[in-house]
Amino acid sequence: MTxxxxxxLTPIDPMALVRAASGPGNGAVILFLGAVRQVNEGRDxxxxxxxxxxxxxxxELQAIVDEGATRFGTADVVVEHRLGELQVxxxxxxxxxxxxxxxxxxxxxxxxxxELKRRVPIWKxxxxxxxxxxxxxxxxxxSAGSPR
Amino acid sequence: MTxxxxxxLTPIDPMALVRAASGPGNGAVILFLGAVRQVNEGRDxxxxxxxxxxxxxxxELQAIVDEGATRFGTADVVVEHRLGELQVxxxxxxxxxxxxxxxxxxxxxxxxxxELKRRVPIWKxxxxxxxxxxxxxxxxxxSAGSPR
Amino acid sequence: MYDAIARMTVTVLLFASYAEALGASSLAVxxxxxxxxADVLSNVRAQPGADRLPPMPLVAVNQQYADAHxxxxxxxxxxxxxxxxxx
Amino acid sequence: MYDAIARMTVTVLLFASYAEALGASSLAVxxxxxxxxADVLSNVRAQPGADRLPPMPLVAVNQQYADAHxxxxxxxxxxxxxxxxxx
Lengths: 148, 148, 87, 87
Hints:
The complex is a heterotetramer, with two copies of chain A and two copies of chain C. Helices cover 30% and strands 37% of the residues of chain A. Chain A has three helices and nine strands. In chain A, 48% of the residues are buried. In chain C, 37% of the residues are buried. Chain C has a five-stranded mixed β-sheet. The longest helix of chain C has 9 residues, at 37-45. Helices cover 18% and strands 31% of the residues of chain C. Chain C is built from two helices and five strands. The interface between A and B is medium-sized, with 29 and 29 residues.
């Protein structure tokens, strides 16, 4: 299977990812799903909107799956990231990895999600129960758009 | 969710496992699938039959999911292992773990599959293209049932 | 007068390669009333095909892993566990 | 006679909190013909709201991460990348 990165506005189908990463040589398939949590850092979240620099995000995602597919031996790798408005429990990202052995499958899965979080230009704005919205800054700084 | 261990004779439904491990507090869900590979240690495999000491296997599996559900903070854990005759690409085991954070979700997933392989009394007999069948001994010894 | 130590019977379960080796999936084994897992194993070794068992097979008594010194009781289920290969 | 170094225009893209800070998602910025990323950033800093940008924002030129010394060319797409939060 060609390593495949996708950005979508519609719900992610986890089984489609699992199928894409499966094959007669793959003894282990690992699916990672990221989902919107109801509470983040103590604040009640009602939803999230994801925005991206779409062209660059897609290039970076594709570079990550291409590298992931060869970095720990040959793996089948497919990644899908959703953009737009998501509700609590909606899946924001799905990563499926198929490999002959589970050691490598776990390693690839973990590597792909960490790289994605490190360098793919995607941003999320949390919606809180009090009606406010705030861009999330994982580096812990106060967001430029939301002085507190 | 109550941690749940199941033995089945019928095909495993990966999405049912994902749903069971999902929830509004779970920002990460990881599904591990073990599947029958076409080639194992250089020999062409046409299928596998899985046998178990069912009563004990179920107890051990349940003990593993119970411990996995609390060992790295609270997690939702569900495990299903298939028994009987499987073909290449059929899923033999599915493990779904839901947790607030991905670090712990990966840790639980990995811990559960390693414990399962270490102590749950399940055995597999590979069927080869030459018509022979052999019980697999992961410790590398020649199987008692198949002198070579 | 009869034996001070009564005899008892345990059920030995055999699986996978061990069941093939002994040509049976269970055996009724009679041992002394103070027998341990090791005594049950000695008895099993007298069976045809038991030479193909390893020197120290894993054992479970009533579905719990047990060591060679563990006592067994009348009616216990003593399972010989080949190297497991689940997953 | 006109300037020895020609002027050129690059498109600056702003996203998420940066777009909110400057009230725009893109700016047409005119810089000298030998300009670097740092020169483009200096120009952006003259915009209202730019005081809410960090001292050293991440930058991509034509969808590739670039450092402050990288040269830009006429028509380049220079994106200011807020801390990413995908996944």
